[in-house]
Amino acid sequence: MDLDALRFGNFSKLGEAITDWEQMTKHLADLKEDAERNLKAKAHKANWAGDNATVTREFVDKTAGEFTDAHTQADSITKILKDTRGELISYRTQLTDAIERGVKKNLTVMDTGNGTFTVTMNIHPDRAAKGTHVPEHTQQDVNNFRDEIQQILTKATASDSSAAEVLKLLVDQAKHGFSDASYKDRDSAAEAVKAAKDMADIMRKDGRKLTSTELNQLNENLAKYGNDPLFAERLTTDVGAKKTLEFYAGVADPYQGYSRDPKMWEQAKQLQKHLGIMLGTATLSDSDAMAGWERKIIQLGPDRLGIDDANDPSGFAVMSNLMRFGDYDDQFLKDYGEKLIAFDKERNVKDMSPWINNWNQGDLNFWDKNDRGRDPMNGFLQALGHNPDAATQFFAQPEGTGAGVNKDSELNDHLKYLAKDRIWLPDPTLDGKRDFIAGHDALGHALEAATTGYAYDAAPMSGKDPMVPGSADHRTAATADVMEQVAYLYGSEDGPKLLHDQSELSDSLGKMGAAYIDDIDYSLSGIGDHAKDDSNFPAKYPDRADFGNQGAINFLSVLGQNETSHGIVTSAQHLYTLSMLDANPPTNDQNIDHARDALSAEAEARGILDNSRVQQAETTYGANAEEANKSLGRSTEWIKFGVGAVVGGGVACIPIPGAAGAGVAIAPIAAETAGEALSTFIGQQIDKGADSTEQDPREQAQVTSALFYDKGFETIGTSFETYFKAHPSAAEMADEQNWKEEIKAGYLGTGSHQNDYRGRPAYKED
Fold first, then answer.
1. Helix, coil or strand: residue 85
2. pLDDT (0 to 100) of residue 176
3. Higher model confidence: residue 671 or residue 371?
């Protein structure tokens, strides 16, 4: 900054601009509130059908979101401008004061352009008039005066230039619309940008030669600023695509072949996570520089990096392990995945994996002992598991398909390839499970996100996951389209074999079934595919999933074969039924009719699940009745899944202990919160489960098929009694209408005696 520009600068125009921005921010705040309360709220309450229920509502949501982002961006710009103006005025005051002090010592300063200046004497002593006293000064005074002026100008220049830089970066975040990046002042934004420049210097170094101090410094800054848009974009683009990949491969390399310092190993592990999160944040920027970085990363994917580190990995191998963490741009993930799958398909040959083989020993994943990170498909699918919108898009039904899925041609090509055609191999570390296929687990996580709208390991009720704001039903017509494909695929004739061969995703399939238990009940409720009643099983989102009556039966019969998926879906089914009973107290004929249908649907669904579980235990263990009974004993403990369930926002969050994937199952309930029956069940089972285990531990481990069915009847019967306990007259009416016989027939008739031709048979080894 030139001396005269600061000394004589007129900041009134900047003040006027700030006033305008303040007014703009205030108006945008009003528009934001109006968009949330009126535009968005009314759109969600409207009873739209067809495209209006999906396309129009989605457009309204995005429009309302733009008002929010516009307000955030305007507020940040206002604060940065205001902060900068205040700083510049302060520096001008300091400059004026310094010049006045200089005059008292006969010193003055002159602007010489381009940020330079000279210090001179006001009047040379030889030219002073007779009798004139010229203030004395020393050379040190001159030096001090010069240094003070320079220091002020340096600070003013930094304030001015950094403000310009962060404002440009802020605006560049969104090419169309507005950015949601928020800053309280210029300093906070400038500090983030400076930290990015400093960390870029570290990342340009050879990753193998990084000191523990440097690695710690990098991790601290990535952890602090990883979700800061300006930091993320500046660091990512400054380092560049190829160098980023080379750097991480270099840090990971010392882990290969020999023992490393445990502290350094832990630092490298944290780097994988923090760097992945930061890169995800960077991809959310729409700047030209980031668009170029993304294109380069995808271009580098198939090729070896040409380095000595980590067995010279491909770009896919490195980037896929970094993207296991973070919120990534949907389009970037789609483009990346398209190229990865195309490359992978061409090399999908038995015993010739391009990833997991004897000559590739480059471990790049520090976070899973069952997954060394050599197969890049695993990391990519984990990325989809943390990015629900991207996952839903990636597995979308082909265009032109109608309601439901009835044939393979209606399946997404990516889903068909990954679930049916791809050759998956285990890739454990020395401490991992030898036969565990991490790719199946990752596929399950990606499909969970695609169908539920939640990150697979989200803890929605805790509020700790920044990607899951609050607790609600996140299903949409698009997620339902993916779920229809999953139910068709795993409910098909190949379904039992698929589930057996891909047992690592049994918990994910259970969670998906739980998330759509209301739609499954709806599909079971009619006579075949006719006479289904929306009022009995109301849709909670537009264009609900349509599985078809037989499709729902087939899917449930496959889920029931596995202990884990059986337990999760059974728990969700029972919670949903209890919520239906709470929502329809026996105070009028319509409510009673709804309750009857809810109990009948649970009886039928539970019958299919339980009979499938019995048949699979008998088929798996054959003459070994004791092992079969133990398997059934474990399946009676599904009730424990509900012990820690938390209800709110129209969903129940069911903890899944011992499942391969972390997190909870999200199951819909009929009301926004838990009613008496649901609350009583959740609360009482904590004590009952503990007491039962203490009194008869053998019973928990060994259950015959007859006792297994008795336990199924027990929970349904308890629901029946709970519903009518305060309404004896309604109970009498139910007796007259033979509710009990109807429920028994639903559970036993559909389950035990008809499953051979109404569902899929138990899986049997060839």
1. helix
2. 43
3. 371
